[in-house]
Amino acid sequence: MAHGDITHIDIPVTDKERATGFYSGLFGWQIAEPPGFEGYPMWRAPNEISGGGLAPRDDGFDQPRSYVEVDSIDDTLAKVSGLGGTVIREKSEISPTSWWAAVQDPDGNRIGLYEGTTDAG
Fold it and tell me: Which of 19, 28, 51, 117 could form a disulfide with 44 if both were Cys (CB 3.0 to 4.6 A apart)?
């Protein structure tokens, strides 16, 4: 994927099994926990392009969050405050070759950032 592409969408859930049944039954999504991502069911849409995860809901994560591919999370985070936004999650490792972070735009919208490659099996 290229810089600026939507790469992943996390949906906050309180009951992973219930959410898995709901989304797979409603949309036909294939949902599984790939090796290395146990406890984090990941979904794939029938187009085999769109996908994301069913992540634990908490006080700071109560609405779906889209993740945008960036060339460098460090460079992108450095621009956020100057453009009127806020960093709400600093760069965190997913795997040795991939990282994520989250920002909030001036209107309060929360967007995830993704950099790297992840082999999800």
Answer: 51
- The answer to whether residue 45 sits within a structural domain is yes
CATH code, domain carrying 83: 3.10.180.10
Residue 56 lies in a domain: yes
Q: Three-state SS for 109? A: coil
Distance, CA of 117 to CA of 27 (rounded, Å): 26
In a domain, 19, yes or no: yes
Domain of residue 112, residue span: 6-116
C-alpha 61/C-alpha 78 separation (Å) is 23
pTM value is 0.82
Window from 17-26, 43-52, 64-73 with minimum mean pLDDT: 43-52
C-alpha 29/C-alpha 21 separation (Å) is 10
